[in-house]
Amino acid sequence: MSLLSHAFFRNEEAAYEFVESRVWPRGPVCPHCREHRNIRKLNGASTRIGTYKCYACLKPFTVKIGTVFEASRLPLHVWLQSIYLIAQADHVVPARELERALGVSPKTAKVLTYRLHKAIYSPVARVRPSVRSGSGLALRPGMTPRTEPRSEALERRRATALEDIFSAFHPV
Ligand SMILES: [Zn+2]
Description:
The protein is mainly α. It has a domain of 41 residues. The chain has eight helices and three strands. About 13% of the residues have low confidence. It binds zinc ion. The site of zinc ion has 8 residues, from loops. Zinc ion binds next to loops.
């Protein structure tokens, strides 16, 4: 089974559920006021997928706020496909390649490659403690590992793509 056949690469609701489980492992958190209790998912017929309302500050939000996906109208499952393709490639993926692989416009492909390359290939290590805690490399966000050259970090990132690529969820 191809990894790209996962529901979250194909279905928008599944994509939201997947990203939410990564960004909010303990349940939704309001990006405006950090409230995590008085929050309800909105399910109206005209409500956009993945919309929540915070009853502390009364503002709506989705999991995209504060991530590389913020303010993008591109479906989240297409973002996930892009992250996967970029993380799996053994080269820096040019916008033209994403354009062909995903069937998106040249402009969309440029935005995708710009935001994702910035997030994935940033010189600042974006290592989640849960991934590396066993190797003694647990880092705070923004810390650069001293014991691992950047090229090895990138190799490891590709090797465990589905885990590590989601470091791209960090704010840009
Ligand atoms: Zn709030």
